[in-house]
Amino acid sequence: MARPKIYVCRPLPEKALALLRGRTEMRLWEQNEIPPPREVLLREVADIDGLLSLLTDRVDGELLDRAPRLRVVSNYAVGFDNIDVPAATQHGVVVTNTPGVLTETVADFAMTLILATARRVVEADKYTRANLWRSWEPMLFLGQDVHGATLGLIGLGRIGSAVARRARGFNMRILYHDVIRREDLEGELGIEYRPFEEVLREADFVSVHVPLMPETRHLIGREQLKMMKRTAVLVNTARGPIVDTLALAEALREGWIWAAGLDVFEKEPIEPDHPLLALDNVIVVPHIASASIETRTKMAVMAAENLLAVLEGRRPPNPVNPEVLAGGRP
Ligand code: GLV
Ligand code: GLV
């Protein structure tokens, strides 16, 4: 039997590529730094059975129309806002993602941004390297305490819960909001449910852990930033468009809030002239919250296994639109 044809949108950890190489006819976009341009992707999908996509690859109706043989889109990410899932379902294409394996690594990084922002680590590093350090000073780089402060979690999925577990170790008081109240977890995690606006008003640190959907786009804008404490820190490791970044730049400049730590942006990479980049009270990093060696390898293997399962007629471990599996391609 002919091996299924697949296209992989970026070099992945070798362990995953080795899995795929043995069991498929694989074509690979070989450049690490940039995704396949749209026209390349539209051309490449014409004869493939499976696509291994990244969050930088838009999979929409147009692409699906050009891929008559396509049976599976395996996304190398837990988030899948780059994929038009209803369109995939309509085309009978299974979509899969990589939940679970990156939870703890992303939660580590949310804590990293909370701590680094509160204690001004990046500013202080730049200052030290610039040879500006003259002596021990009582008022040098005063920050906010994390221990004993109130953490407000927006979203209590796997990642939000893992951040709560860490925050307990810092003796933080933890409030959360989610569209689904999780009373089952409240006792275990020592957290309290609050309406969204109350979390914003009461928290010293607000950390965002919801997926990007129409309902969460600009969930945090001018009005919400104005509700937050003037001493508050906002951390976003979820998706950029959940926060209105122009409003955030204004809030940071005008002192509506104290600082922000951002792993994700409305446009990635962030535009070099974005007003956020002119501010000292924001830490910006290039969407790396899941970027540990071990986790990126696990994500890649999981994405490869999801892809192979569908192509080999098995149930994939992590379907996003499982209804397609029952129906098959129309
Ligand atoms: C990364 O942002 C992911 O969704 O896995
Ligand atoms: C994502 O994995 C989440 O549920 O937070």
Short description:
By secondary structure, this protein is an alpha/beta fold. The protein is built from 13 helices and 12 strands. Helix 1 runs parallel beside helix 12 and helix 5 crosses helix 7.
List keywords for this structure.
2 domains; single chain; seven-stranded parallel beta sheet; Rossmann fold; five-stranded parallel beta sheet
Walk me through this protein's architecture.
With 330 residues, the protein is an alpha/beta fold. The protein folds into two domains: 5-100 and 293-324, NAD(P)-binding Rossmann-like Domain (Rossmann fold), CATH 3.40.50; 103-284, NAD(P)-binding Rossmann-like Domain (Rossmann fold, 3-Layer(aba) Sandwich). 36% of the residues lie in helices and 14% in strands. The protein has 13 helices and twelve strands. It has helices at residues 14-23, 38-44, 61-65, 85-90, 103-118, 121-129, 158-169, 183-189, 196-202, 222-227, 245-254, 293-311, 323-327, and strands spanning 5-8, 25-28, 50-53, 72-75, 94-96, 150-154, 173-177, 191-193, 205-208, 233-236, 259-262, 282-284. It has a seven-stranded parallel beta sheet, sandwiched between helices. A five-stranded parallel beta sheet has the order 2-1-3-4-5. Strand 9 (205-208), helix 10 and strand 10 (233-236) form a beta-alpha-beta unit. The longest helix has 19 residues, at 293-311. It is globular, with a radius of gyration of 22 Å. The model has no long low-confidence stretch (mean pLDDT 97). Bound molecules: glyoxylic acid (GLV) (2 copies). The site of one glyoxylic acid has 6 residues, from loops.
